[in-house]
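Hey,
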Amino acid sequence: LSKQQEIVDYINEAYTQKQAKEAEAQQLLDSIDDYLLKELGITIPEIKTEIGNRIFIVQHSELKGRYTPSLYKDAISLHSTIYENIPLSHLAYVNPNTRLPCQDEKMVISFVPMESVNEMYAEINDNKDCAIAEAKGFTRFQNGDLLWAKITPCMENGKSAIAKDLINGYGCGSTEFHVIRPKNDNLLVEYIHSLLHMKIVRQTAKLYFGGSAGQQRVATDFLENFNVPRPAIWKQQEIVNYIARIRIQAKTLREEGNIILDDAKRKVEQMIMGESM
């Protein structure tokens, strides 16, 4: 019994250390949104739920198209007090037409299914491949494009990533991706990605859902009208670099936690086998 208890205590301590590493990693990732709001001079108003704040008056002149009370009242805009605010459609193409470089249907390009996108680190885990002939009916994109999930629950979970290292520079993937492509070098796609991956943005995007239950999607107009605070390119790069460092630190912490647990499992196996021999 004493040896059993020693083994249990040993493995439990490893799990505790792993959980501590994961909690520290998550805390780092959660800090990114606050960093962005501070750097961009954005204050998010508190949403009050008292009955007096849930009743409001709307002028008839303000009604345009479909009227959704939650959208009118609770939608959040990333309005910066220190930088120019510009609609995304003025800075980037939303779902642009992507022409593949040749008509050779045997040419290989990358294939990115939804499950290949890691929502925690907002990156593509692995690029599969397919022939151009197999790309028909899928969303097409090219190196440097931002893929942003539009369907529930992938959008809420943060499934988005920048297409990189695509085979022959092109790819295709899930039809549930919106594709965003900067119009010029004055906008870093990584910067736009950092904004669209914010939790408060994804919560607001939910207000724009359309479609049947279980198959709801964010309409294109949410992205086209999305307000973008645009600092100078050097500031965009500074923000992008900071966030990249945070994600690397978080990933390292999680890897350290996995190593601790794996080492503990090997040690426990030795303890058990040693006892039985």
